[in-house]
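A quick aside before the break. I want you to see a complete sequence-to-structure record at least once, exactly as it would be stored in a machine-readable document. Don't worry about memorizing anything.
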Amino acid sequence: MPESKPEPRLVVEHREHLWWLLSEAAQLEHMIMCQYLYAGFSLKDADELTAEQHTMVEGWRKEVHGIAVQEMLHMVLVANLMSAIGAAPTFGRPNFPQRSGYFPAGVQLDLLPFGTAALTHFLYLERPEGMERLDATEFVPEAPPRAPVAPDDALPRPQEFATVGHLYRGIADGLRHLADRLGEDGLFVGPPRAQATPEAFHWPQLIAVTDLESALAAVEEIIEQGEGARGDWRDAHYGRFLRIWDEYKVAREKDPGFAPARPVLPAFTRQPFDTKDPRPLITDPATLEIAELFNVGYEVLLQTLTRYFTHTDETDEQLDLLIGASFDLMTGVLRPLGRTLTRLPAGPDHPGRTVGPAFEMYYQMGNFVPWRTAAWRLLTERFRVLADRCVRVEHANVAATASAVADRLATHIA
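That is the input. The structure line, written in tokens, reads:
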């Protein structure tokens, strides 16, 4: 493939420049992860495919899910980087779609079912820096390029980057520059206890950030998993999606009518508060209840992660409980509800379409107060709401998961 021109250097002259770039990286990783989960949820099951097709589709589902899990790892690594420089990690983000303006004009995000457009888009996002690739035809840049940031700008603002790798190389250069100017002790002011560790998360690739060496290692881990180290992308996200694309292309050539995904629509329960253009809305009452349930579970997950990364006087046991609650939510609540939604009708306004989880953000995410007891009371209360709503829609297994977590949290409230 043709090589593109080198991309401009990102400016990091003070801590706020770096803080801005890390916040943008956190939101970007978050939204990319949601895109991959959405595509994975959209894939059909055995009762909708031939045996040969099902074997192939299950392989794709496993691969896409594995890549999404690594995107979550990237989110956690960025959170560690933010904590290390004294910035509270953020798990908030804008609603989908973000076609132009929020990120650089060439970085657009939307929820797509598994297929030609989605795979083209994923390959574009994960392409190595310097590689030319076209995005899916649905994504046409409309916003003008961002104005360059001057080194003496006191306030941070958006900067242009075309690839994820370019963003992280800019962050790495900024870390080196600030460590040289401020000293490592002056840059890495966050307490080591605020770091997510591989032992706590049972994630060997996770890196606790306490100095320049570990910070650069965390950035390199993200780059290697995404685009590959020094151009070796075969086992990185780009290479893995490329293998899926090749298999999908052969399957479609063999059977042009082969459709591995359901006709999912990223329909919302209500018009997003931060989106001007009207979005498709769910009008089937039963589907609407499940979609709202998914969104509550997703909100509680973000609240739980936020508490973990901004905890105060939690014990090691309590921090382990927050981690366990997060994984219980992902596997015992969001995964089954997400797959259920893709079989349910969007409603008479969208005939023939089912619903994919839109990962709705109802409001601008905030945080609990620093005091642990108050924060845990609110978190327990929200888990109870989730469990009660699961009972209402007769999702017994999901209700049991949420209720069990609430019970475990409640034992730690004075």
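Two observations worth writing down. The mean pLDDT is 93. The beta strands are 264-265, 354-355. We'll return to this after the break.
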